[in-house]
Amino acid sequence: MRTDVLVVGGGLGGVAAALAAARAGRSVILTEEFDWLGGQLTSQAVPPDEHSWIEQFGATASYRELRNGIRDYYRRHYPLTERSRAWTDLNPGAGWVSRLCHEPRVAVAVLEQMLAPHLGSGRIRVLQPYRPVAAETDGDRVTGVTLAHRDRDERIDVVAPYVLDATETGELLPLTGTEYVTGFESQAETGEPSAPAEAQPLNMQAVSVCFALDHVDGDHTIDRPAGYDFWRDYKPDFWGDRLLSWKSPHPRTLEIVERSFTPNPDDDPLSVNADQRLNPGDGNLWTFRRIAARRNFTDGAYGSDITLVNWPMIDYFEGPVIDVPNASWHLSKARELSYAVLYWMQTEAPRPDGGTGFPGLRLRGDVTGSADGLAQAPYIRESRRIRAEYTVAEQDLSLAVRGDHGAVSYPDAVGVGMYRIDLHPSTGGDNYIDVGSCPFEIPLGALIPQRMENLLPAGKNIGTTHITNGSYRLHPVEWNVGEVAGLLADFCLAQGESPRAVRNTPRLLADFQDRLTAAGVEQRWPQIAGY
Length: 531
Description:
Blueprint: E1 5-8, H1 12-23, E2 28-31, H2 61-77, H3 82-85, H4 104-121, E3 124-127, E4 130-138, E5 141-149, E6 155-158, E7 162-165, H5 172-176, E8 180-181, H6 187-190, E9 207-208, E10 211-215, H7 228-233, E11 247-249, E12 256-258, H8 285-288, E13 290-292, E14 306-309, H9 327-347, E15 361-363, H10 365-368, E16 379-380, E17 385-386, H11 394-397, H12 399-402, E18 413-417, E19 421-423, E20 433-435, E21 440-443, E22 455-457, H13 469-472, H14 475-495, H15 499-504, H16 506-518
Parallel strand pairs: 1-2, 1-7, 2-3, 7-22
Antiparallel strand pairs: 4-5, 5-6, 8-17, 9-16, 10-14, 10-15, 11-12, 13-14, 18-21, 19-20
Helix pairs in contact: 1-4, 1-14, 2-4
Protein name: FAD-dependent oxidoreductase
Organism: Micromonospora zamorensis
Pfam families: FAD_oxidored
């Protein structure tokens, strides 16, 4: 198969890249390994992690189109109360983590709506479920990628002048011989205050296998997981208790705190102020990532709230799942941990009334679109990352370093983002690293590999460090990166120039930034303070 732009990976970055290139008139092949497009928003079942100003600014126009589309979908198709239907910034789940917590399948529907006209015209072709297994190169160029069907013995070779790696783990980087880094860089290399003295390439953030729950009458206890005894007794050195407990380190202070758990509190959804500046929102785990608040809907529509479990105790940091021979084993253990957490909550977790266990907790695999009850895909926070022309370092955006000066402003800015430097416990035994951040820009140099000419990152695999990945890995930034990669491929095809030339030629860079502005891609922040 041949196409103008091949986008491998159908997460948020991949969908944004395909849309951008198709809207520019290019033919696109988009691939995805799992049953749903949307990656961390859908198949991984993670409600959007966003900054405090997301309703006003700090995202691309097409990302706003996605967010508005999700709200409109609820208003058109769900039995909302009139009060909730009139809520301008409707938060269907009234979760505290985000101003837009919602069921994953709604995002799937909206993404498919956004893609629909391009699928109908044939400008975008989606190959699903396929994953990359091989690549051909000629010097510093990728000449083709081989894709394998997930469920049957079938392979497709795709040739394209531009290849975008939007996979969750940067799978094309080793397949194409593109130079990349994993894990912690050394302080000597990056100069980062939070970096270790020696590089630790296998020290990566925890992965999590999320799942959805409601709480209804009856006993819905799952079978006891095979490895339950191990996980019940497991006590990380820095945790302050067993992993399976309501206690864990506070990410920002590392103080051991105990969170509450109250299913179906009779709270008012419109009273939830999901602002990470004011409150991390994880005091009551039930409402933290709640994706359906029953009081947003007419009486009887929902017998229970639905909450999304992406909580401290499901973080799996026993081993990395990238560039190790036993990656699949670690992923299976991560799934086992999630089942163990659920079984513990159903049978042994302390209740506010002094009892133990919540047998009414019911696994909602129908909500996550999976036969086994868990999310279709693991939530992988940290990817392989290209060795880029410019690598974003902690001192570029750390609030402690930059203070009132704000984040470094890049002449080649191609987007904006904001999130604290939020690193979960890692496979090297590190506790949380959580550092205040300034609203930052995305430099084009972070999307340009040091050597390869027609391979572009379109997700979490850009030129960040282990540390700054903690800020750049979130939903709106991944979308922004993918959208820019798709527009850059189109711009280079139109100009007959390379991505490297676009960045390093003032006239071309100015023209490309104008193209981004016309597409609704913000490149600078107004004057605001970080947190």
